[in-house]
Hints:
Keywords: Autophagy, Lipid-binding, Membrane, Repeat, WD repeat. This protein is mostly beta strands. The chain has helices at 275-278, 286-297, 303-310, 380-383, 391-396; strands at 5-7, 30-33, 39-43, 48-52, 60-65, 71-76, 82-87, 90-98, 103-109, 116-119, 123-127, 131-136, 141-147, 158-159, 167-171, 177-183, 188-196, 200-205, 211-216, 221-226, 232-237, 246-251, 257-262, 266-271, 316-319, 327-334, 337-344, 348-353, 360-361, 363-369, 376-377. It has five helices and 31 strands. It has a five-stranded antiparallel beta sheet with strand order 1-2-3-4-5, with no helix packed on it.
Amino acid sequence: QRGRSVRAPPMEAAAGGGPAEAAGPEALSCFSYNQDCTSLAIGTKTAYRLFSLSSVEQLDQVHENNEIPDVYIVERLFSSSLVVVVSHAKPRQMNVYHFKKGTEICNYSYSSNILSIRLNRQRLIVCLEESIYIHNIKDMKLLKTILDTPPNTTGLCALSINHSNSYLAYPGSSTIGEIVLYDGHNLRTVCTIPAHDGPLAAITFNSTGSKLASASEKGTVIRVFSIPDGQKLYEFRRGMKRYVNISSLVFSMDSQFLCASSNTETVHIFKLEHTTDSRPEEPPTWSGYMGKMFMAATNYLPAQVSDMMNQDRAFATVRLNFSGQRNICTLSTIQKLPRLLVTTSDGHLYIYNLDPQDGGECVLIKKHRLLGSGKTENKENDLRPPLPQSYAATVARQSTVPSSSSMPGYSEDGGALRGEVIPEHEFATGPVCLDDENEFPPIILCRGGDPGKVKRS
């Protein structure tokens, strides 16, 4: 699910996910946000680390492991202690750990290199180049193997974080932008969505699994579809001048915004709203008249031309001070305010304020180092230029006490939404447990062989 993770696959570089650029001995080999964007995981040549994203001013390291070198996939299950790791030393083996206890829960080996892993509270997805394995996360049993998928060298796939539907999306072709929508709960194909003319570069679900966004390798147009029927809802134009490699595509948790970053210096944030439906009646002015005439004229233009005219452009943007560097972005609420986070392969985390009413240029308010001493970089003259007394100026004044209780999503209680009671039948009846802390999900201690030999269908 591009937008939440970037990794360097074994042996070869993938578009937007190849080996990290040289940035010292500890350049990041992989980096990913967890499912609700409250945690950041990074991997280097020597270790992997987990950080909490509950505060703007402080970047708290939750865990560091120096025993597994050359990690290229690290995925944490919400804010629980379950973490999945794959290293270059054993690129066909998935290891699942309880990092607080320092114990291995299980491991599985596959027939070829693991390219990506996706998690929610119900399913664990392992994507290889030409097959996908679906595990029941409560006991790690293999439920389904999707064989003979089109060549997928980057391991592109997306899993809804909503465990009540567990929709899975993956490329249906290596030559055109076709998306296969699969029901990970009932283990059946739902539909195929003809999303783009060219091959896919990015796909991602919103938090409820009711929308799916996609971009092709050209990177010029981003489309949003309703799920499960696959109808097109929105079409955004990221740019027309040049093709780009989309490295990150992600919805905000409330599904109001969609963020895209690439190998260029601009991050685009789109607002998901149908302005034509809610726009009040305009006064009879000359400009209003001409606007209506223009919109009416699009009905007579060729479809390709009128579609381009009707595409919405970015609601807000960020101008990075670099380009050509791998990065991932996410939209999150931190200390009660909307933020844009950008993590880069040279080991930095940038935090911006997003104005949800007026959009425009986002304001950089903090820069953290993820490597070395882990100290925060915050040069007042660089990060906080004089601003008028606007929304952006107001939110730039940070509260001194992080309001962790206001964070949306999942917490250290093991992954239950605050206020949500997990039904008893959703817990495995078998042995184990992520433990006595009642973390979700329960997992039995096991040692897995080649799951392909367990069940193929």
